[in-house]
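=== Discrete structure encoding ===
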Amino acid sequence: MSEAAPEEGTGGPSEGGLRRERAVRAAVVQGIVGEDRPLAGLLDVTGIRRTARALQSAFAPLVAEGGPAVRHTFAVRATPLVPVLRLLYEDRIGAEVASAAELALARAAGVQPGHTVLDSPTKTVAELREALGSGVLVDVDDAQELERLDALRGEAAATSTFGVRVDPHAGAERRAVFGVALGHEGAREWILSAFADRPWLTRLHAHSEVKNAGGVAPERLAEGVRKVYELAEEINAAAGRRQVDALALGGGLAAGAREGDTGDGDGADFAGYAALLKETVPGLFDGRYALVTGFGRSLLAGHGFLLARVEYVRAMGGRRLAVTHAGTRMAGHACGRRLAAYDAQGRPKGGPALAQDLAGPAQFDGELLASGVELPELEQGDWLAVLDTGAYGFARHQAYDSLTRPGIHGFAAGAEGVRFATVRAAQTLAEFVAESGAAHTRALTDDL
């Protein structure tokens, strides 16, 4: 069962929760949302910045004096929005990109090549050729990709840095989808041979399994890093020199038990994870290896929410069904996700909680955002906030039923009030029609 946004301990909402309440009220008053704008995504800029700085602070004390610093990157797939990437980059968070389009987003945000990691599992020859001389950090996924690089390196000089992505947990019991499965028969020997034959391979990337929701247990992440660290030590021992000089630690950390309160005391435990890495892999921070992280969900999830108008409330099967503009195609099913109710003026909704179902706007049977969630009684014109959607949420809109993309807005709540900045404008009907082939209306009737 989904839950309403809980109150902090003994004193009401957290600091992040208070910022959210002010932002909802201001969004209604200022017309960011309304009857003609029934859905918007809101990003808490203060929370994002605090989280970025908390990540920096967690790892900085562990770095050996005089050794290479830890370089942090953001998994662009989590929130592929240029202003977000720029905000993070100004707080020294680079970009981890998994496609040519994500690389273009990072460039548009001004992220420098040396702060960009490219690790798409489907790099084309053209993408590899461009990457070769771009200066970005490239992680190779398999033997065929490495063969392509061998051929391309014969055509032009390389300015980029190259390594191999390894799935340290994949083996007989779990198949790998990305990277080289370290537990598969012959995989370790192939990696050792690949590095021995190519002195220009200088990185290893630890990639733990991808989860559709939540994160990977920190202990499992740290164990994966340990395995890849030991592989680097083996490669260097065989080479008789420090050939592998950089380790990408990947991401995968959950955003915290209380999404959205990072920086206020209850978000992603970056300091705990860094300490766990230090304990599990003692040599990791001794100054011999440059380190790169690639967090996504834990940086942004709790600092974004969808604000959706309650359009109708129906009696269905003896229970109230609130039909809103926030659906599963954007927010995912809200099982376990926090929700918050506001009245038509954007004020926190009062009254006793009762079990209600929440439906989204799309016409398919699975469009039930939440079932039996206990919230104050929702009415037409109220507002529902679907929390913790700042990563892998509203930025990956799918246009089922030809639903247009909502606007995304950042907000800062200060003493002078709440200010908003457009991150992505709402998609207009004209833009949607144009995107759907209007310029080629007669292509199938006249051109064939």
